[in-house]
Write a structure and sequence with these properties.
The protein is α+β, with helices and mostly antiparallel strands. It is built from 19 helices and 14 strands.
Length: 469
């Protein structure tokens, strides 16, 4: 029996090989990321604090786009076979001024031990065909009819995926067949694209055209993890690869790395065949796939995330007030962070702004003193050691920013219309499975470790205060 995590690891490797063959610049991205990671690991003895080098080197996240709840539910079944659950709700429609009519979730492992084995994730977006800001009633009907006619995932793949989920693995022959079919489902199809239909959708949104203008889905990008994203950004540009204008997410600064920083090289022209209105087949090009890279930091609590959002909003306000020719975004953001965000992991933990696992400190006091009842005191007096929990999820604004940077046009939206309401509950209905709240996953991991550590210390007062349930 090939267990679930080995299926997931094999799928990630094969997908990476396939994508590298289809998008050669992705192979360059992997080479540069590997060089940077090796250099950081050699010079920084603490480089593995947010993940061992072996895990960081193997780490990937992919992205796909689907058109209907049925397709999303089927994708969820395939990822469930690999031990990946839907986590988080992301509404990209209002995260950018460009036309990006999708809501998203990310399929990933949720247990710490599974993440340590292989943390593969797939950011999966669903087209919001009923959103009147983008699609009128007539186009919605034609678009949904087109989507209902296509089959993204063959029945054999879905049957194998159901069995793999139920039995938590597959026999070798069936595992091989599952992996072969799954990778093929995410390859770029050679089938000609209906030029008139694709062009009609692209006038509204390049993302909508990439989802609903073709008869298949494909990996939109595949993302390695790097330990110094600023160094990678410079090095990719030195190799002649055009990067997007800026790194998305928190600024580079002297404090702790938190959440997620992302960038990418711009989408490249790829040869495609088109079916013309007269029935002839011609050759052209589309720009839909790009190479993203990410640097992951510490997961923030709800309070920490609120602090991050407030700093981002203030950065926007100051940039708007400065007008054209003003300071760079990174400079404005860095100054705000230095004034308004904890400068150390210790303060992040003590103020409850970040998520950590805790264990009794090997150098804790050995006299008869009672441990303090508050977390700040336990840390300051050396009773507990805090280890950061890596942020495993995404930022809607950053995702939308990279989507926007790689669009061929801004698209159109009718701002006078009201968008179709979407939330985590409605997305769960579309997926056919509960969408997990990432804050709850991190909090459960932190709380379990804190309770265990306090019990080991015999810190009854702290247990009653910090772990009341």
């Amino acid at each position: 029996m090939i267990p679930t995590w080995r299926l997931r690891a094999a799928f990630a490797r094969r997908l990476s090989g396939m994508y590298g063959a289809e998008v050669p610049a992705y192979t360059t991205l992997l080479e540069v990321a590997g060089e940077v990671n090796d250099e950081v690991a050699r010079r920084d003895p603490d480089a593995g604090r947010l993940g061992a080098l072996a895990r960081v080197t193997a780490e990937r996240h992919g992205a796909i786009r689907v058109g209907t709840p049925r397709e999303l539910c089927q994708a969820a079944q395939i990822f469930a076979a690999l031990g990946m659950r839907p986590v988080g709700f992301y509404d990209l429609r209002d995260a950018t001024t460009s036309a990006v009519p999708v809501v998203s979730t990310a399929f990933r492992p949720v247990e710490p031990e599974e993440l340590a084995r292989n943390p593969f994730r797939v950011f999966t977006s669903l087209l919001t065909t009923a959103d009147r800001r983008f699609f009128d009633a007539g186009l919605q009907t034609r678009l949904e009819t087109f989507l209902e006619r296509r089959t993204l995932f063959p029945p054999e793949l879905l049957r194998l995926a159901e069995r793999a989920e139920r039995e938590r693995g597959l026999e070798p022959d069936e595992a091989e067949r599952l992996l072969t079919l799954a990778v093929a489902a995410f390859e770029l199809s050679p089938e000609p694209v209906d030029r008139a239909w694709y062009t009609e959708l692209a006038r509204i949104s390049a993302v909508a055209a990439d989802i609903g203008g073709v008869t298949s889905t494909h990996i939109n990008h595949l993302t390695p993890r790097v330990l110094d994203i600023d160094a990678l950004y410079r090095r990719m540009a030195d190799r002649g690869i055009t990067m997007i204008d800026e790194i998305q997410g928190p600024p580079r600064w002297d404090g702790p790395d938190v959440l997620l920083r992302q960038t990418s090289f711009r989408a490249l022209d790829e040869a495609r065949t088109f079916r013309e209105p007269d029935g002839s087949v011609t050759t052209g090009a589309l720009r839909v796939r790009f190479g993203e890279v990410e640097a992951r930091g510490i997961a923030l609590s709800r309070a920490g995330r609120a602090r991050y959002d407030a700093l981002t909003t203030e950065t926007d306000r100051r940039l708007a007030a400065s007008g054209p020719g003003g300071p760079a975004r990174q400079d404005v953001a860095r100054a705000l962070w230095e004034a308004g965000f904890p400068r150390s992991e210790h303060r992040l933990a003590a103020e409850g702004l970040g998520y950590f696992t805790y264990e009794p400190s090997p150098t804790r006091p050995r006299d008869r003193r009672r441990p303090p009842a508050d977390l700040a005191g336990l840390l300051a007096q050396g009773w507990l050691t805090a280890h950061p929990i890596v942020y495993e999820d995404f930022l809607p604004r950053s995702a939308a920013g990279i989507f926007r940077s790689n669009l061929t046009g801004q698209g159109t939206r009718d701002a006078t219309r009201t968008g179709t309401p979407y939330d985590e509950h409605r997305l769960s209905e579309a997926v056919g499975r509960p969408v997990h709240d990432p804050f709850e996953i991190y909090a459960a991991q932190q709380d379990a470790s804190l309770r265990h550590a306090l019990e080991a210390l015999g810190a009854d007062d702290a247990l009653r205060t910090l772990c009341p349930s």
